[in-house]
Amino acid sequence: MGDLPVIFLSGHDGLDDRMRAYDAGGSDFISKPFVPEEALRKAGVAIRHNRRHAIAIADKHATSDTAMIAMTSLGETGVLLKFSRGALACRTLYSLAELAIESMGSYNIDCHIQLRSPTQILTLTPRGAASPLEESIIENSKARGRIFSFGNRLIINYDSVSLLVTNMPVADDDFCGRIRDHAATLAEAAEAAVENINLRTEAIIRANELRDLADTSRKAIEALRASYQEMQFAARLELEAMTDSIEGMYVFLG
Fold this sequence. Notes:
Number of helices: 5
Low-confidence stretches: none
Number of strands: 8
Strand order of the largest sheet: 5-4-3-8-7-6
CATH topology of the largest domain: Beta-Lactamase
Shape: rod-shaped
Strand content: 5-15%
Domain Response regulatory: 1-47
CATH architecture of the largest domain: 2-Layer Sandwich
Protein name: Response regulatory domain-containing protein
CATH class of the largest domain: Alpha Beta
Helix content: 55-70%
Radius of gyration: 43 Å
GO biological process, one term: phosphorelay signal transduction system
């Protein structure tokens, strides 16, 4: 009844009567005696007004829901932007894995992550290093394709990254879909970050090799210089000895 327009028909036409009708939820007021055509017209107006009011309320709710979804999505996207910035600053696989787990935790989502480089394979969970069984689950899931779901779990695979979500919110289709997208985006960003770490590590190795080569070359040059100086000293001694010998011969031949 609360959604139906109510028109009061009354033999009283005072202000108090109309106020009581308004307080009771009335949409209009007709005093007696009344003309039936007027009552029908007012009923039509009340019904149209009530319909427009209901549509306005529904639109307001829809706008509010859309705004809430947009705000929620913006907040969730902010987590990914923060991860992307932080990931490119990571210097080690461990710091990158910790950041990924922390970022997914912002959605109240638990995940295991495996990062692979030419020199290291790291598998980390929210509780620390993965158990052999947890590692084997990821290892066996790598052959299932880029994205694979089983129960409330989701695995995302890239060349250097495997991300296992262990508590997908399957009861909430919208949130579950967003988490699937967020996890895929995070894994892709982590893949780029691993490549960045690999390039930095390789650059450091090459720099160390060049430094070692330069150090070896410097030592070789120093050794060669020392040997040359020794040869010069020996030659000078030999020359002095020969000079003394020749001068002695001239004195003897007098």
